[in-house]
């Protein structure tokens, strides 16, 4: 159960038919945090709906699984993720600003809850906007609401929030378009880390999207890795978002996942 929920929540991917990789720059000159944030804001999100197909590999301490994912996004309203193995749907998730719903056919289980319970399980605060941003290669946090120290690390600009004993957040950008290359959330007291990396991007008429995504989530002695290869993407089509839990499924709470 935890395997498919991890895939559904963490892999809301974006994808492309060909790997026409967008060229990126190496950071060399020191700039201000305001300059980085303003330049990052210039990468607009211009779509009403987004349809994505992708391949993904899930791996944790006990197992490894290759799956296909179909993702439908209606901007700022809903996200539907379908996970398939050998062409058969094995799990679905419907995510809205108010709720997270999920079911899986293996085990006949379903979950319905809010972001508070999901955030508790994943070890970091989540809401709809953060989940949507993760799929689009955007920062989880609104950068205008924080204060950041600027440095250059591994030829990337690094914005680091004022760290404290509970949480430390960092965001990394390349220097040509100020695209997000990596974001990290560390919770030292809980021994939790979440890293989301975007190795490559492609420019479309509507916007720039990542074409690959790598997630590394660690909690104490356990770890989960998800690597995604994007296959195709289309914008502004009429999409349906069908979601119905089959009869006879057992509702579960987050602590049983």
Distance between the termini: 6 Å
Overall residue-averaged pLDDT value: 87
Measured as a percent range, the helix fraction is 10-25%
* Helix-strand makeup class: mainly beta
Q: Can you tell me the residue ranges where pLDDT is under 50 for at least 5 consecutive residues? A: 11-19
The profile of the biggest β sheet is:
14 strands, mixed
Report the principal-axis shape. Answer: globular
How large, in whole angstroms, is the Cα Rg?
18 Å
Strand order of the largest sheet: 7-8-9-10-11-14-15-1-2-3-4-5-6-16
One letter per element, helices H and strands E, the order comes to HHEEEEEEHHEEEEEEEEEE
What percentage of the residues does DSSP assign to strands (E)?
A: 35-45%
Counting DSSP H or I runs of 4 or more residues, the number of helices is 4
Number of distinct beta strands: 16
Write the layout of secondary structure elements.
Blueprint: H1 2-10, H2 33-41, E1 49-60, E2 64-74, E3 78-85, E4 88-95, E5 100-104, E6 109-113, H3 115-122, H4 128-136, E7 148-153, E8 156-161, E9 168-173, E10 180-187, E11 192-197, E12 201-203, E13 208-210, E14 212-219, E15 222-235, E16 250-251
Parallel strand pairs: 6-16
Antiparallel strand pairs: 1-2, 1-15, 2-3, 3-4, 4-5, 5-6, 7-8, 8-9, 9-10, 10-11, 11-14, 12-13, 14-15
Question: How would you describe this protein?
Answer:
The structure is a single chain. Helix content is about 15%, strand content about 45%. The protein contains four helices and 16 strands. It has a 14-stranded mixed β-sheet, with helices on one face. Strands 12-13 form a two-stranded antiparallel sheet. The longest helix is centred in the N-terminal third of the chain and has 9 residues, at about 1-10. Mean pLDDT is about 85; it is low at about 10-20.
